[in-house]
């Protein structure tokens, strides 16, 4: 038995052969003929998915968009699905890139293909101008010949290990340790480095680190803003003779040992000073042996022999300082030992070998921290 249609109904009861009547507003209460809006989050999800930028955010936006579309009846379901799929693929791709080290290859490509951004490809021995100066953030440099005037000269590039960004403080500490230790390998004749030249470094930023930048660029620059370097400071085995390299290697080893003097005074920590004096005594023994064992040219034999005699006297004073029973006795031998450092015999030997012969003035070997961030 069929149920009669309600009064006023043109169709009777709904069936498979008759459409369901919705009234004047259609489904979800929307008037017929009204345009259906596109869900904004669905569009955003698709954009992020196509660009492979912040894929995790693209996936989240796509899922939220699908939920909103089901509740509101908006269009854009296909866009949300496509954005979610592309973002998921982007997440997988980024995970693969980071786990295989491909990000470093991408960074190398950026460095090789970025016109005008030569800071990304500076190498040992390069000279450059920095339009913004060496202090603070440095975004770009112009490589120039070292023979002319320039702001900086790269003397070493230190590559940091991968992993999470260690932070600006950590990277600066590494730069302090590495760059100051490496400067003498590039400019071995420390007497030839002008007093107004100091060590600077270019550091990776948090942004460049994400792209694989791991380079600390160590360089020389003038301590006065706006004052440029002239000519190269390079003085290593590629530019010096064998005799010069041997002499400077022994001299720099002694300088390194002397720079390690304890911060506290002998009155406050005599034990530490005696231990340091013993290390200087040992380094002097190695220096004397190296100078004696090298076949010096005729013009340098006598000057070097005279220097060796001074070094032997200095070594004996350091030995006595290392066994001093009180601070006063230590100071006595300490002062005598330093009297032989960079004295007339050193100047004479340097002249004979064609090296700089003017000793650095007091305080000229003290360095300050100077950094710039890429």
What does the model show?
The protein has 374 residues and is of the alpha+beta class. It folds into three domains: 37-100; 118-230, no CATH class; 242-341. It is built from eleven helices and nine strands. It has helices spanning 40-51, 55-72, 77-100, 102-113, 168-186, 206-210, 242-259, 270-293, 298-322, 327-338, 344-352; strands at 127-129, 136-137, 142-144, 149-150, 152-159, 197-203, 215-222, 229-230, 372-373. The chain is elongated, with a radius of gyration of 36 Å. The termini are far apart. Residues 1-34, 109-117 and 365-370 have low confidence and may be disordered. The chain crosses the membrane at residues 40-67, 79-97. This is DUF4190 domain-containing protein. Residues 125-226 form the Septum formation-related domain. Residues 14-24 have a biased composition (Low complexity).
Distance between the termini: 86 Å
**On the 0-100 scale, what is the average pLDDT?**
81
* Helix-strand topology string: HHHHEEEEEHEHEEHHHHHE
Number of helical regions: 11
Number of domains: 3
Find the structural class using helix and strand composition.
Answer: alpha+beta
Helicity range = 40-55%
Uncertain runs? 1-34, 109-117, 365-370
What is the radius of gyration computed over CA atoms, rounded to a whole number of angstroms?
Answer: 36 Å
What sort of overall outline do the alpha carbons produce when their principal axes are compared? elongated
Total strands:
9
Largest sheet: spatial strand order: 2-9-6-7-5-1-3
How is the biggest beta sheet arranged? 7 strands, mixed
Q: Proportion of β residues?
A: 5-15%
Domain DUF4190: 41-96
Biased composition (Pro residues): 1-13
InterPro entries: DUF4190, Septum_form
Transmembrane segments: 40-67, 79-97
